[in-house]
Write a structure and sequence with these properties.
about 180 residues, mainly alpha, 7 helices, about 80% helix
């Protein structure tokens, strides 16, 4: 009788360990998939930027400094590793892209160029997709990190080698502020 009770206890503990491990692996894979979605959207963004710069260069030949900053920011963003460094580089790239769109105000022919308008729309669409991917990634990171920290999973997560993941956050405090609108 005692042997049967001991076997049942061992079977329950083994089933709990297997279920916990499989749950952690599932969440880890969801975080990795979400990060991959961000990479896909960022790659699309990186591919659009040289076309945008080439279009602007044709109209704004005296703005080479602004265009070089955009290309440098793009290259920095492409080489950044990890969520924190990637977020910082992406925020810098977003700032430089704003300056290139501000150039269109000074060059009416550029502002009316259909290629420029199409690229601007595609970049805007890509920005929205990047934001959606960030939210999806951060939601998966939240679920994974929560699972690692709650009892009783926290007792075995560290032993199995699972570690917390970083959120993809806004690094620049100025970007957190709501823009002031004046009329």
């Amino acid at each position: 009788m005692y042997l049967l009770i001991l076997l049942v206890i061992i079977a329950v503990v083994a089933a709990w360990l297997i279920a916990t491990y499989n749950g952690l692996i599932t969440l880890k894979n969801q975080v990795d998939e979400a990060w991959s979605d961000i990479d896909v959207q960022l790659k699309r963004r990186y591919d659009l930027i040289p076309n945008l710069v080439a279009t602007v260069k044709g109209y704004a030949t005296h703005e080479s400094g602004t265009l070089e900053k955009v290309i440098q920011a793009r290259n920095s963003a492409m080489s950044a590793q990890g969520p924190h460094d990637k977020a910082v580089a992406e925020n810098a790239l977003s700032s430089t892209l704003k300056s290139i769109f501000a150039l269109s105000e000074a060059y009416p022919d550029l502002k009316a160029n259909t290629n420029f308008l199409k690229l601007q729309d595609e970049l805007s669409d890509t920005e929205n997709k990047v934001q959606a991917s960030r939210r999806f990634y951060n939601g998966n990171v939240r679920d994974f990190n929560t699972k690692l920290q709650v009892f009783p999973t926290n007792m075995i997560a560290g032993m199995l080698g699972f570690i917390k993941r970083e959120f993809f956050e806004i690094g620049n405090e100025a970007e957190r502020n709501v823009p002031e609108v004046k009329f």
